[in-house]
Automatic annotation (TrEMBL), chain A:
Domain Metalloprotease TldD/E C-terminal: 289-537
Residue ranges annotated for the Metalloprotease TldD/E N-terminal domain, each copy included: 59-123
Protein name, as recorded: TldD/PmbA family protein
Xref: PANTHER family: CONSERVED PROTEIN (PTHR30624:SF10), UNCHARACTERIZED PROTEIN TLDD AND PMBA (PTHR30624)
Similarity remark: Belongs to the peptidase U62 family.
Keywords, ordered alphabetically: Hydrolase, Metalloprotease, Protease, Signal
From TrEMBL, chain B:
Signal peptide: none
Domain Metalloprotease TldD/E central: 132-214
Protein name: TldD/PmbA family protein
Top-level taxon of origin: Bacteria
Origin organism lineage: Bacteria, Pseudomonadati, Pseudomonadota, Betaproteobacteria, Burkholderiales
Protein family membership: Belongs to the peptidase U62 family.
Organism (species): [Empedobacter] haloabium
A Pfam short name: PmbA_TldD_1st
Length: 545, 445
């Protein structure tokens, strides 16, 4: 599920921010200087000692400094630049077999020690309600270590003027080719996270992510009709070099209908295409509902993967921990235990990982101090594993956590979040153009559109940004009003072909929501262009009063 | 940091404004203490307490403005925030849509705080979880729930003399109870400002009853049905629609309220004449702050839909000035008129229909028609001759709230909706609606 928490936070932070701002909004020299490591260690030790003294059997401390910059533009104006800086400490303990958590923005030894004692009191208050004590899979303390997102250009040191000019250039490009209105945004995130636990780890991480979505809107005032085309970029776990796209980063979509991007992004070029395509959408042929073979581009398929595989294989959902909110899962333990549950066709292989460079989910360690790793989720179409945290590993007979515990802030408690979950590329050589050649009656779908799936991850409906009719192996024209509905298991078993690794690339979700209180998380999903046979397509055109 | 009282908050906002040499300064200061307990599988899974206070400073030189936000409050940090904002402002170009700080406003206090909020303690939260889990266990069910409470304050100030300070406190509760075999599920949602108006056990019993009644669900063919929507079930759909009540979007031709040929549909009857919706910060059941944080404008009681007609659209300060209309503050709540009948009475007067307890994962499919898709969840039942005949499998729907509000048969008693991420606090009635469009079946329970 995608949430708008970041936007909400940013809007609240903005307050009176409907202004254009150029230049360095936060003094760069202050931003790039993290808190002194010895200060963080001393704070962490204060909490660990206080918790232990108060009777905690386990304690972890997360000291966070979170820097966000959020730029919004509209047409030729910079509307809003929000810079937020938030620092604080979250203390989680186990006492009497139950969890307690307290967070404070007061960063003194006394305050974090008091937070630790309060956390123990909360754990004790709830211990009487435990049906069984929490069991943590062992983690070997790693001592004092550090990890950072690899990047060559730090977004914090790039002048705001340059960033705003890039967005305005994109807006102008879309307006010149057919858009009536254009909005574009740039989200930039730096999480400076320090983790310490009674296991003996002191882990310092510096994580960077960014995303630049846009929406081009074409309006036909005479008919009262409007259509939009969103950007085809993918958010990335990398530095500002993401915007230095070279020809090698550009991918020709099947039939040459548009340009796609891999490893870096040319927002101006994409916006130029978007203006034209939004205008074309005003007159696109409304789709005839029925069964179609769908050819799904990675920039679209990532979201279907996210919803129908990523969330469905979260062990906390399977066990019922999300039953009140995000839901449970059809991928129940008995299906996994049978070792023969056909989640998808034989060519469907999903891998979970925290190690893919450039991905949103790449980290050195999770928020329980577990190193990032890679493992199989679905192998040759069969469900073989889940995503687990330290307190879940024993349930699936494992002795180590998968490293899937994360919090979105120092003030949020860590819990199970998905790693990058990616569909492996096809083993046979196949390009998107060759894939389309085999399709008699189909639709080629690109870009993320509307999305919805039920609480057990069966029934879903997805839209997209661009829909092209495929007739007898040829892409003919844009279609409109397209959405497809399917059942997860039927859909993945209808997977009949996929392009090879030359076409494999990642899409991503910047604001994946889950949990109560709701938290966001960022995660990537890779795939190559993939074909699904005989999927139900509906027409979404409606008339209102 | 301790929650700030009005005098302490004022001292900080005054200090911040004294630190800047810019033409104008706007400050927002907010703090909260948020407690929660989360449970699942009849055990507490997490429980926590989070305290945080944030300061946002925006300064302007002419039409150049800069902003910074921090959550540290020593003198050095306050100065850091001001200097960062000033540095940004000096580098900023003029914004053609810049609106200067507003003049002093009068804010009539609203009842967003209740002194009983001091009852929110770890023991109180644990007791909420116990009452809910115990009730479920006694019926052989499995409970997963979430209780959260929040106490805090909001403060705004600007260099033209605007100053507003108000305390807030509220609670939210939801619980899903499921049968052990996973064939039945029920849910309930409660919100309140005063802990004395909340009973965890009584609320949980509603979810328990739904869970027990929802096993043996039968499949019904997708199609158009009369539905009885509980207040929580329709609030998400309405939330999507009301975020589009924006004059600029409509005037520019990019919302369902845009008029063919240009202009907007203000004054047109787009809904059944039984539909009346307004915003009112002083409503006793759903009070919200009497100002909008972004513009610092004082909120007013405002009709949105009157007898089915679009009664007002939101004009931000820039668009109001450009079009010669009065500016309006964003609404904090949405209140829809209903009747006095309970959901049970609406069911009793339904010949054939479907009771929808909860909707889920609603997303916009087409903003042109506000077509939304989503699903039913945690208790969907077939009604025949005024009685719940049997549970049914969940549906996916593709429906527009504009169409829905044209097909209203009858409205029930309004109820305060819990905070599910909505931009608005909502008081929404149960409603019986004709021809609601279910497009496919879901096997999910």
């Amino acid at each position: 599920m995608e949430r708008r928490t970041f936007l909400k936070v940013s809007a609240a932070a903005g307050g009176t921010l409907l202004v254009p701002v150029f230049g360095n909004a936060i003094a760069a020299e202050e931003l790039v200087n993290p808190m002194a490591i010895q200060f963080k260690k001393a704070l962490a030790d204060a909490a660990l000692n206080a918790a232990t003294k108060a009777g905690a059997s386990y304690c972890d401390v997360r000291i966070g400094r979170y820097l966000n910059q959020f730029i919004t533009t509209r047409d030729t104006n910079v509307e809003n630049i929000v810079n937020t800086e938030s620092s604080g400490v979250g203390v989680r303990v186990l006492a009497n077999g139950a969890y307690g958590f307290v967070a404070t923005n007061v960063m003194t030894a006394d305050a974090v020690a008091e937070a630790a004692r309060q956390a123990v009191a909360i754990a004790r208050a709830n211990a009487r309600l435990q049906s069984e004590p929490v069991r943590l899979a062992p983690v070997k303390g790693v001592g004092e270590v550090a990890w950072a997102t690899p990047f060559t250009k730090d977004w914090r040191t790039v002048p705001v003027k340059d960033k705003a000019e890039m967005l305005i250039a994109a807006n102008k490009a879309a307006l010149a080719t057919g858009a009536t209105f254009m909005t574009s945004m740039l989200f930039q995130v730096n999480q400076q996270k320090y983790f310490a636990s009674t296991d003996g780890s002191y882990i310092d991480q510096d994580i960077h992510r960014l995303w630049s979505p846009f929406t081009a809107t074409a309006v036909d005032k005479a008919s009262g009709k409007f259509r939009t085309r969103d950007g085809l970029s993918s958010p990335a776990g990398m530095g500002y070099e993401f915007f230095d796209a070279q020809p090698r980063h550009k991918v020709r979509a099947a039939g040459g209908v548009t340009t796609l991007y891999h490893g870096a992004y040319d927002i101006v070029e994409d916006a130029k295409a978007a203006g034209r395509q939004a205008r074309e959408k005003l007159t696109a042929k409304s789709v005839e509902p029925g069964k179609y073979d769908l050819v799904l581009s990675p920039e679209h398929l990532f979201l279907t993967i996210h919803e129908s595989v990523g969330h469905a294989t979260e062990l906390d959902r399977v066990l019922g921990y999300e039953a009140n909110y995000a839901g449970t899962s059809f991928a129940t333990l008995d299906k996994w235990q049978s070792k023969k549950f056909k989640y998808g066709s034989d060519i469907v292989n999903f891998v979970a990982d925290r190690t893919t460079p450039g991905s949103l989910g790449a980290v050195g360690y999770d928020d329980e101090g577990v190193p990032g790793k890679r493992w199989d989720i679905i192998k040759d179409g069969v469900l073989v594993n889940y995503q687990a945290t330290r307190d879940q590993a024993h349930i699936i007979g494992e002795h180590q956590s998968h490293g899937c515990s994360f919090a979105d802030s120092w003030s949020s408690v860590q819990f199970q979040r998905m790693p990058n979950v990616s569909l492996q590329a096809g083993r046979k050589k196949l390009t998107p153009d060759e894939l389309v050649k085999d399709v008699k009656k189909g639709i080629y779908i690109l870009g993320r559109g509307s999305y919805s799936i039920d609480q057990q991850r069966y029934n879903f409906q997805f839209g997209g940004q661009l829909f092209y009719e495929i007739k007898d192996g040829k892409i003919t024209q844009q279609l409109g009003d397209v959405a497809y509905q399917a059942n997860t298991q039927e859909f993945w078993n209808a997977c009949t072909a996929m392009c090879d690794e030359r076409d494999w690339r990642m899409g991503g979700s910047f604001f994946d929501g889950k949990g109560q209180p709701s938290q966001i998380s960022a995660v990537s999903h890779g795939s190559s262009t993939t074909r699904f046979n005989g999927i139900n397509v509906i027409n979404t055109a409606r008339k209102i009063a | 940091m301790k929650l700030l009282d009005q005098d302490s908050a004022k001292r900080i906002t005054d200090k911040v404004m004294a630190l800047t040499k810019a033409d104008e300064c706007r400050v927002t200061l907010s703090g909260s203490r948020k407690g929660n307990v989360r449970y699942a599988r009849n055990s507490v899974s997490t429980a926590g307490l989070v305290e945080d206070t944030q300061l946002t400073v925006a300064v302007a030189y002419g039409k150049r403005q800069g902003t910074a936000q921090v959550n540290e409050f020593d003198d050095k940090s306050l100065e850091k925030a001001v200097r960062r904002a000033e540095e940004t402002a000096r580098l900023a170009p003029e914004n053609p849509e810049f609106m200067p700080a507003i003049a002093k406003q009068a804010f009539r206090p609203s009842a967003t705080f209740n002194p009983n909020a001091s009852e929110f303690t770890p023991e109180y939260r644990a007791e909420v979880a116990f009452q809910s889990i115990d009730a479920a266990r006694k019926k052989g069910l499995v409970a997963a729930g979430f209780f959260s409470d929040s106490t805090g304050f909001e403060c705004i100030a600007n260099s033209n003399g605007v100053f507003g300070y108000q305390e807030l406190a509220s609670l939210n509760f939801t619980v899903t109870t499921r049968t052990e075999d996973g064939r039945g599920s029920g849910w309930v949602n409660r919100a309140a400002y005063d802990p004395k108006q909340f009973d965890a056990r009584a609320a949980s019993e509603i979810a328990i009853e739904k869970a027990l009644r929802s096993v043996e669900a039968k499949a019904l063919e997708p199609g158009r049905y009369t539905v009885v929507l509980e207040p929580s079930a329709s609030s998400d759909l309405l939330n999507f629609m009301f975020t589009a009540f924006d004059a600029r979007q409509a005037d520019e031709g990019r919302s369902f309220l845009a008029k063919k040929g240009g202009g907007n549909r203000l004054g047109e009857r787009l809904f059944d004449e039984k539909v009346n919706v307004w915003a009112d910060p002083w409503d006793a059941n759903a009070p919200v702050l009497p100002w909008e944080q972004q513009s610092m404008l004082a909120r007013q009681k405002t009709d949105l839909i009157r007898n089915g007609q679009v009664a007002s659209l939101d004009y931000d300060r820039y668009w109001a000035q450009k079009t010669g209309k009065p500016a309006s503050a964003d609404h904090g709540n949405i209140i829809m008129a209903g009747g006095s009948k309970s959901t049970e009475q609406l069911i009793a007067e339904t010949r054939k229909g479907i009771l929808v307890t909860r909707t889920w994962y609603i997303r916009m499919v087409d903003p042109q028609s506000v077509l939304l898709t989503g699903l039913t969840r945690d208790g969907t039942f077939y009604i025949e001759n005024g009685q719940i005949k049997h549970p049914i499998k969940n549906f996916r729907f593709n429906e527009s709230p504009v169409v829905m509000l044209n097909n209203i048969d009858e409205l029930g008693k309004p109820m305060l909706i819990g905070d599910a991420g909505s931009r608005f606090r909502m008081m929404i009635p149960a409603m019986r609606v004709r021809d609601f469009n279910f497009t496919s079946l879901s096997d999910a329970v």
